[in-house]
Amino acid sequence: MKKYRILLVDDEQHVLTFLCAKLKVTGYEVTSTANSTEAIEQLKANDPDLVVLDIMMPEMDGFEVLTNLRQFSAVPVIILSARDANIDKIKGLDLGADDYLSKPFHPDELVSRIEAIRRRFVPLEERIALDVLSLGDLTIDFKKRLVYSNGEKINLTRIEWLLLQDLVHNTGSIRLYEDILISIWGPEYRSDIQILRTWISRLRLKMSKNSKQGLQIRTIPKAGYILDE
Predict the structure, then answer these.
(1) In the chain, what are the domain boundaries?
(2) What angle, 0 to 180 degrees and rounded to 10, lies between the N-to-C axes of helices 193-208 and 177-184?
């Protein structure tokens, strides 16, 4: 199986050495650079699956690198910074970063953030081998983006379909409120739990129509939702 490829960009060599060792032991394929220009070149040449990018870089800082790479790539990016967390976080997310970590951090937290992004960005067809999936009375056609309950078509809005796809994509795993909000609505909505509850309620209602054995979206109090196996 092809290893998940990560590019580390940080001008502190001891940080690169430590994180490279940690991520390789965890099972990732890792390349690294302490140079911003070289980071852009590696991104274009090697097309990594994820980038861990430090903000405090000489010559071209991490924000400039992020702005540059977003012109040609949608690769997930986790930004790192030892500066004012709120200012850097907002600016980084506005420029297209997917997550943020403040220095210092525990390496296990970085691994956890990488895994969360990895689950979110794995193509659905890699998690589900079939174009059509049956869940009790429900039939979900991923290729055509159609859902049926006992043979009757259920009309879903774009948001409802994205929520359904996200939950099925992560069947059996807890999806945290924040992760779903970022995935569906974007980072600026990461704390808007009420909008998520409203749409989950609508999705549940539609999924339960004419179905006794349909989609079981379970609420994990103060955490998120899980689609049971």
Answers:
(1) 5-121, 127-227
(2) 80
CATH number 3.30.230.10 given to 127-227: no
Own/partner contacts of 184-189, CB < 8 Å, gap of 24 or more, are 184/159, 187/93, 187/97, 187/98, 188/93
Would you say residue 126 has pLDDT above 80?
no
- CATH homologous superfamily for 5-121? Response regulator (3.40.50.2300)
In this prediction, residues 48-71 reach a mean pLDDT of 89
In which band, very low, low, confident or very high, does the pLDDT at 125 lie, cut at 50, 70 and 90? very low
Torsion (CA) 68, 77, 170, 184 in degrees, nearest 10: -50
What does the pLDDT average to over 9-31?
Answer: 92
pTM of the model: 0.57
By the 8 A CB rule, do 91 and 100 touch?
no
150 phi, psi to nearest 5 deg? 50, 40
Contact (CB, 8 A) for 122 and 140: no
Instruction: Assess whether the region 5-121 and the region 127-227 belong to the same CATH fold.
Output: no
